[in-house]
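1st attempt posting a full record on here, be nice pls
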Amino acid sequence: MNVFNSLIPAFHRSPAVRQGHRDEDLGATVKPHYEIKETDEAFGLTVDLPGVAKDGLEITAEDDTLRIVGKRAWTRPTSWTSLYRETSDAAFLLELDHDNSVDLDKIRAELVDGVLRVSLPKAEAIKPRKIAVA
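the predicted structure (as tokens):
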């Protein structure tokens, strides 16, 4: 078990998502850098999506998968010649599988300056509870 799965076993990387993965509708895609933190109440997901605006962002949560697609709106000028470029024009694609421990109706997302922050509240069934002893 790798460090990621041992820290947060409820989420794991989908094996189909990798650098250079090809999605039929998106063409070539790139997996963005992301970080997941866990509290008693929720999971916090931070995803770096440089160059993506709100209208180019699509977040879907179905069954046991959270899918984030970010498309950049930048177009290369016709007279522009690239000597060196660290990023590609490919769309971002991140798919995270979970074990239905997230309350899908309460997910909130915010995109500010290319950084997406998603709050994934835990379902009531898995939250820690205090048990009164009689």
